[in-house]
Write a structure and sequence with these properties.
This protein has two domains: 1-10 and 34-69 and 304-377, no CATH class; 108-266, no CATH class. The chain is built from six helices and 21 strands. It has helices at residues 9-15, 38-64, 66-69, 78-82, 87-91, 367-374, and strands spanning 95-96, 100-101, 111-114, 121-123, 128-133, 139-145, 158-162, 165-172, 175-183, 192-202, 213-215, 220-228, 234-245, 249-260, 263-279, 285-300, 305-316, 321-331, 334-341, 354-358, 364-366. The strands form three sheets. Strands 4-3-5-6-9-10-12-13-14-15-16-17-18-19-20-21 form a 16-stranded mixed sheet. Strands 8-7-11 form a three-stranded mixed sheet. 40% of the residues are buried. This is Lipoprotein.
Length: 378
């Protein structure tokens, strides 16, 4: 599928057909014909585009440098750590204080490290716990509970292999609880929680290696994350992110807020694709031959709101496209109707040559022309 500017929400809906990730919500659009003008849509999408780009670029930078800013005595790319689906290769970048590392074929790193004095003192432990002092003299602690036992109900970790390397042996969590805190002293004075993480995941059984799992796209997962800056302001709040893959469905739903550089993006979604789920040689998710797509997607930047109610029941491959029927985009309470194919028929990099946007007064415009006019490539 041709990639357009991520902030145009229609593209986010389209992405749900091939990957278990998207953005979305609950629009409840009014019945009847289109009531929004082309100008109404332009104002909203251009405003959202600017805000979304600011939040995306700013938050990516902040997340990438999150732990280095606190001068943590380990290396962890938080953007990858929070990313899905390949959790272990992401945590493989987590190097424990003073040389404890998770390699490509290894168990999860475990132990306790107290680095608050400058030297890291190590002791045994079932989880991963590191304490250190930040440049501002605060006492920081990162705790990762690999089996979720701190919640009262533990789920055992499992052993699997990377899709690209069936010979690898990786221990991965199925229930992970994490926390990052900051305090004025070692006793926890003025304790502040900067990050909370709760993730439950189920990986497909491997048909390449007996008694093993494929550490790739999970069969199911649920993620809840709260990430704050040291000043207490919210950087990312994932109230819910879920995906489920069965033999004939792919569903995703979620609710999140991201904030950076004075801009905020809120998003909710609930999307379901029915069809035949394809499995690769080791049993991993290989895509879906879709028969229909339906659901809702909504987002706002605090000034303008966009919400989709979509229905599609025709899909093609090589090239990939989706045909929408009787779908609605609600723009600040007014509606735009749309239907047609997302295919880029003239191969100019703009999808929707035959997807019609219908506005108030009977005015129409093809999606590709709308994108060229108001969201040109840079």
């Amino acid at each position: 599928m041709v990639k357009q500017r991520w902030s145009l929400l229609l593209v986010l809906v389209l992405a749900a057909c091939s990957k278990p990730t998207s953005m979305g919500g609950d629009p409840n659009p009014p019945l009847g014909g289109a009531t929004a003008s082309e100008a109404d849509l332009k104002t909203a999408t251009q405003s959202y585009d600017a805000s979304a780009s600011t939040v995306r670029d700013g938050s990516n930078g902040e997340i990438a440098s999150y732990f280095s800013t606190l001068q943590a005595p380990f290396t962890l790319r938080l953007a990858d750590f929070l990313g899905l689906p390949d959790f272990f290769s992401q945590v493989g970048g987590l190097l424990g204080a003073q040389g404890v590392a998770a390699q490509v074929s290894a168990t999860l790193p475990r132990g306790n490290w107290d680095c608050t004095s400058g030297a890291c003192l190590q002791s045994a432990g079932d989880d991963y716990d590191v304490k250190w002092k930040t440049p501002g003299g605060k006492y920081a602690e990162l705790y990762l509970d690999w089996n979720g036992s701190s919640s009262g109900v533990a789920l055992a970790t499992v052993t699997g292999h990377l899709l690209q390397d069936p010979s690898s042996t990786l221990e991965v969590p199925t229930k992970l609880i994490g926390k990052l805190t900051l305090a004025d002293d070692a006793s926890g004075k003025n304790l502040q929680t900067l990050m909370t993480l709760n993730r439950n995941v189920s990986y497909p059984k491997s048909s390449c290696v007996s008694n093993s799992y494929v550490i790739d796209v999970p069969d199911s997962q649920r993620l809840v994350v709260s990430l704050k800056r040291a000043d207490g302001s919210t950087l990312l709040n994932v109230r819910n992110f879920e995906t489920t893959v069965t033999s004939n469905t792919l569903t995703t739903k979620g609710d999140l807020t991201a904030n950076s550089a004075g801009k905020t993006i809120n998003a909710k979604w609930d999307l379901s694709t029915n069809g035949t789920v394809l499995r690769g040689r080791c049993g991993e998710y290989g895509g879906i031959i879709a028969s229909n797509l339906s659901g809702t997607v909504s987002t706002d930047n605090g000034t303008h709101a966009l919400a989709f109610a979509v229905v599609a029941n025709k899909f093609t491959t090589n090239p990939s496209s989706i045909v929408f029927a009787d779908s609605t985009l609600t723009v600040d309470g007014q509606t735009v109707k749309f239907s047609g194919s997302t295919e880029d028929t003239n191969k100019d990099g703009y999808i929707g040559d035959n997807l019609t946007l219908s506005f108030a007064g009977g005015q129409t415009l093809k999606l590709a022309e709308y994108l060229k006019k108001y969201h040109p490539k840079k």
